[in-house]
Design brief:
With 184 residues, the chain is of the alpha+beta class. The protein has one domain. The chain has four helices and four strands. The protein starts with a helix and ends in a 23-residue tail after the last helix.
């Protein structure tokens, strides 16, 4: 069983290998499921898109961003198309991670895709999509455990117990009385 560190290392290296213009060992263009890989790069309009991976405990958060036209947004199936693009990226990351580390990675989708479309003008718009996956085959002992409990350090507790900012002044405070009060 692989540790979380090894899986994270493999997935981040797989994501780093997908830069624009990346080639496989055979000299062919690398395809990860992005829009910029479609069509002829010399003749077609270039689409700017890309993705990012981040990790939180045993979860991988995949972010995708791309330029879109409003007619694409209003067409039927836009969210499904973006979801399929994220699925293609994840399948590429799994294959590439297996090549890099030698162990397979199992990612389980958690929740639905979160798609957000924003525009800067009547001409330019972009889409940002986020999807969360659980890393299933990670060693459970190495996954950090998080709690929702809010802890206050002991020094802050004593500070607050003494009255906080409005408490009694210490003996070594030589300022004039009232000088610590903000002037309005």
């Amino acid at each position: 069983m692989a540790t979380v560190y090894e899986i994270v290392q493999g997935l981040t290296q797989a994501a780093a290998n997908v830069y624009d213009g990346a080639l496989t060992e055979d000299g062919e263009p690398l395809t990860a499921g992005l829009q910029r890989e479609e069509g002829n790069p010399l003749l077609d309009k270039r689409v700017m898109d890309g993705f990012n991976v981040r990790f939180f405990g045993d979860k991988m958060i995949l972010s995708y961003q791309s330029e879109v036209q409003l007619k694409e947004v209003y067409a039927n199936g836009f969210e499904g198309e973006i979801d399929q693009r994220l699925t293609d990226i994840v399948s590429f990351l799994k294959k590439e991670c297996k090549k890099i580390t030698g162990t397979s990675v199992s990612l389980k989708q958690e929740g639905e895709v979160d798609v957000r479309v924003e525009s800067t003008s009547r001409v330019r718009s972009w889409v940002t999509a986020i999807k969360t996956y659980i890393i299933e085959n990670a060693d459970s002992e190495t996954v950090p455990q998080y709690s929702d409990e809010k802890r206050v350090e002991e020094s802050w507790k004593t500070f607050l117990n003494q009255g906080g900012w409005k408490g009694k002044r210490p003996d070594n405070d030589t300022r004039k009385k009232g000088s610590e009060v903000e002037k309005k």
